[in-house]
Amino acid sequence: MAIFTINEFKSTSRSLSGISSYTQLTESRKFSSTTARTNIFLSHSHIDYQLVLEAKEFFQNLGISIYVDWADETMPEKTNRETANKIKTKIIQNDKFVLLATNNAVKSKWCNWEIGFADTYKYSKKKLAILPLADNSGYWEGNDYLQVYPRIERNRTKVGYLSYFILYPDNTYETLENWLKR
Fold first, then answer.
1. pLDDT recorded at residue 163
2. What burial letters (b/e) apply to 148-179, b meaning 16+ CB within 10 Å?
3. Which of 40, 83, 111, 150 has the smallest number of Cβ neighbours within 10 A?
């Protein structure tokens, strides 16, 4: 198993959705609930806007609803105490928590705060994972403390198909599909 590079993740996201070449994904500041079986709070760096849209596409093609704070029109335009309180509520309300762990997110104060908060509510229930994305040279700045969390990785099967897994810190794993069903 291996972590994705940014280009591999974009390619995977687009192939799942049937997009064969570069397409600009867009997002409005409107959040709507869906009938998806699982909802994920997606923690991310706002610098990675386009990757967040790719992640949203990736999970939605697996039948999963994604909550992204800047797509929620009830969020304040500028971050403040109300923002923090709403984020806490959304982390608790969503079934799962996934940190889109890019090099930018690893440096983000908000992302570190969010995963620390989510740890309390999601970790012991196995409802928290990180999705590490290395830069295209394969470099990832993942901090030591992130190694305590399960992570989403990819694996190419013998017949060439990609499959996705949750790799736990004790080196056990389960399919992403099974994890999402829990």
1. 85
2. ebbbbbbeeeeeeeeebbbbeeeeebeebeeb
3. 83
Homologous superfamily (CATH) for 4-18+36-181 = Toll/interleukin-1 receptor homology (TIR) domain (3.40.50.10140)
State the pTM of this model: 0.87
3-state secondary structure string, 8-51? HHHHHHHHHHCCCCCCCCCCCCCCCCCCCCEEEEEECCHHHHHH
Strand partners, 129: 98
Strand 162-167 and strand 151-156: the pairing is antiparallel
Spans of all domains in the chain: 4-18+36-181
Length of the chain: 182
Q: Cα–Cα–Cα angle for 46, 92, 54, nearest 5°?
A: 35
Tokens of 71: 């797509």
Q: What is the C-alpha to C-alpha distance for residues 36 and 33, in angstroms, rounded to an integer?
A: 8
Query: Would you put residue 2 in left (φ > 0), alpha (ψ -120 to 50) or beta?
Result: beta
